[in-house]
Amino acid sequence: MGGFLNKVPQVFLKLTSIAIAAIFLFFLVQPAMAAPKKGFEAIQVSAPKSGFTIEPGATQKITIEFQNIGTTTWKNTGNAYVSVYTYGPKYRASIFRADNWVDYTQGALLKESSVPPGKVGTIDLLLKAPLTEGDYKETFNLAAENKTWIPGGEFTLTIKVAKASSKDPSATLGMTKGVSSDGTASPVSSAGLSAMLLVRSAKQITAQAGEEVRYKIGVKNTGNVVWRSREIRPLDIAIASSETQNASWVSDTKVAVKTEGEIKPGALDLIEFSFNAPQTKGTHIVKYQFAVDDKVVPDFSIDIPVEVTTGSPEALESPVVVDPNSVASTNIISEPTIRVGVLIVDEETDWTVEISCNTDWELRGGNTALLGEMTSGQMVRAFYKNQRYYFNRGAGIEQTNDYLRFIPKTSDGVCTVQNFDRRKTRKAGYADNQFRDVLELRYNSAKDRTWLINELPIDEYLYGLGETSNDSNQEYKKALVTVARTYALYHWERATKHASEYFHVNSTADDQVYNGYEYETRNPRIREAVENTAGITVNYQNATALTPYFSRSDGRTRDWSEVWGGTVAWLKSVPAPCDLRKGRKLWGHGVGMSATEALCMAEEQGKNWKEILGYFYKDIDLIKRWN
After folding, report:
1. What pLDDT score does 25 carry?
2. Whole-number pLDDT of residue 19
């Protein structure tokens, strides 16, 4: 909810600059299978049968085979040697760790001394069962040491720990070829098209409502014609899977397009794409079609089980955690400082960040200890590994137990992440790697990942809001930044949505798209709209209102109860005549403000921003919360 969540299609360029470029984001909610990294890529060809049994306390060797489908020869010694690590979460201490493991996170090295591209390599992994009986799942991943996680190298073992008397005789350790197979090939069509889903990055996704999911599939050409252009499409082209639309989609009817290379019969095509998790809590099946050379492969679909753990009702019911005096809309408060998760530090930046600022700045630990005095433009390289933070400020590699904070000495300081460039890694038009005020490098064990967090005042955060562009109507922009400010304040008051990862909102459509300082400089009229509405939020009965908004409607907005159940007094269904007249389809959850209808109200009807907000959110007050 909050934010567009599902971006406006490219035809509505005035609404959002995000639609200008197809941006393939780099991180999967579940363990990632990215595009080939540094020439490393694998496909699993054998593994133990699921559910094999080990007696409590006993050891058992299992074997997994992978074909090297990259361009780099695998080795088990030297630089970038190949081994298997615990995964999901990464670098965890497995309860199946055996005495011969390299350490508590690294299970085994590649058996062969050398595996050239096209050949099969072996991992012999010794497991020692815990004493407690039960069913277990253990996830591992291949890695090229100090280089990359190897795409296609993730695997999960399903293990039964049971005494011999209760062992299932059928649960042998036999090898099963093609364990990654997702099923049989579709029938060959009259056009010679047939496909089989051979591998996928995760069998099931667990995500929050609206959270971005990055996914990868391996589709085998089981037909008799060569594939050239390949596309992932929504299941129903006429309607489109609006609820799962992501900013990276090529258009509202094309999730991803791949044109490089030719896929001959019998060959495998690896395709990565992103989508947003559905908006309601519960189990969902997200479905997509596969098209080759503009023809849909018949009787074939990509079905992705998604378990949504939280949704908008949870946001509505979340308790306030700040001082009650800061919540009552009758009080003027100091402008809150919001914490925004802007970058997951992973393969995209080689697990490090290189940060400099345009003013003199300080490097401090999370305990406020001063770790370095930096001059303008001076760069510090930093990363997290194995419960320590490492940094190099020009005096060699140093380390600390405390997370790291990069703090400009002036209030208008801007810091740059020098080794992060969206043009190179996300096919974007701009680097968008600059951020106002404080940056923080912080690992969390909840999702076993490290974030770069931007800490700044709420209105400065809105300057870089990527939910609209410089060209859209100014009254519309004022309405949009006001609901976006309200969304930010609402989550600042509760601090629960991303509490386990130490920030209030992230910078994607899961919350609100935020592109930072460079976007702000390209779109000065967004800042103008923020300053013209400074500190004003949407309130209901003297409390900050929850203000969902979405891309477009099909002629009316939805009552809260239609989508999430229960009653929210200010979120009632209202007509959207402009959307209806233009024949638009519902794009998003439908609750709150329709962006396209709001824009029409401003442009064609001359409505001001206050009238627009009063139309979509009933009986609300617009109150200035800070100066």
Report:
1. 26
2. 31
Say how many C-beta atoms besides its own lie within 10 A of residue 74's C-beta: 24
Distances (CA, A) of 514 to 217, 472, 589: 29, 17, 20
Sign of the torsion angle spanned by Cα atoms 367, 371, 376, 379? negative
Residue 501 has phi, psi (to 5 degrees) of -115, 10
> How many whole angstroms separate alpha carbon 450 and alpha carbon 344?
6
Q: Name the residue type at position 500.
A: S
Determine the pLDDT at residue 174: 31
Cβ(586)–Cβ(554) below 8 Å: yes
Specify the 3-state DSSP secondary structure of 424: helix
Q: How far apart are CA 231 and CA 254, in angstroms?
A: 7
pLDDT score for 383: 97
pLDDT the model gives residue 192: 95
Asked whether the bond before 31 is cis by omega within 30 degrees of 0, the reply is no
Handedness of CA 213, 452, 4, 426 (dihedral sign): negative
**Under 8 Å CB-to-CB from 63, ≥6 apart: which residues?**
46, 48, 122, 123, 124, 125, 175
Any idea what DSSP says for residue 495? -
Contact status, residue 510 vs residue 3, Cβ threshold 8 Å: yes
Residues of the chain whose pLDDT is less than 70?
A: 1-36, 104, 164-183, 236-243, 280-281, 310-313
CB 579 within 8 A of CB 599: no
pLDDT of residue 220: 92
d(CA 73, CA 175): 25
Q: Are strands 302-308 and 205-207 parallel, antiparallel or unpaired?
A: parallel
Residue 21 pLDDT: 30
